[in-house]
Specification:
The protein has helices at 10-19, 21-24, 31-38, 83-98, 112-120, and strands spanning 2-3, 43-50, 53-63, 66-74, 102-108, 124-135, 138-148. It has 149 residues and is α+β, with helices and mostly antiparallel strands.
């Protein structure tokens, strides 16, 4: 079941990140950050519940005439089931309702699974931020991507 992220879900979303920290690196959203986002009218989110447990979430933020994808995560046991696609579809529908022209994102160049997923969703590469992500002592570029609505 897909629903909006609410305050009551913050701890579980935070813990899902912590339990999968190897995939998030330094990009874990704190409880305070998530709570602050939820309060803003520009915030858009979708979570996926299976047996009352959060197994996926997407967090987005409106900026001007576009939607910025802050984070998208699906638990390893629920990947390849169309859940991430459904979250992107809900964001596209949100953009259409709000007359937003595109969704933008950045992804670590080393995250080939995510890069391939976004390309499969018709996102295109639009740029690169050198040494944007730090994992341990290594730095990696951010690949900038977008999809026009």
């Amino acid at each position: 079941m897909f629903i909006n992220l609410e305050k009551k879900h913050v701890d579980e979303v935070y813990n899902l990140q912590i339990n999968n920290a190897d995939e998030f690196g330094n990009n874990i959203w704190s409880r305070l950050e998530i709570n602050n986002l939820i309060k803003k009218s520009e915030f858009f989110s979708t979570i996926f519940l299976k047996q009352k447990k959060i197994e996926a979430f997407g967090m987005f933020f409106e900026k001007g005439n576009f939607l910025d994808l802050y984070t998208l995560f699906v638990s390893p046991n629920y990947r390849k089931l169309g859940i991430a696609t459904s979250i992107i579809d809900s964001a596209i529908n949100h953009c259409k309702k709000r007359s937003l022209i595109k969704i933008v994102l950045e992804v670590n160049e080393k995250n080939t699974k995510a890069l391939n997923f976004y390309i499969g969703q018709s996102f295109i590469k639009t740029g690169r931020r050198k040494n944007y992500y730090q994992l341990g002592e290594n730095y990696y570029d951010a690949i900038l991507m977008e999809i026009k609505i």
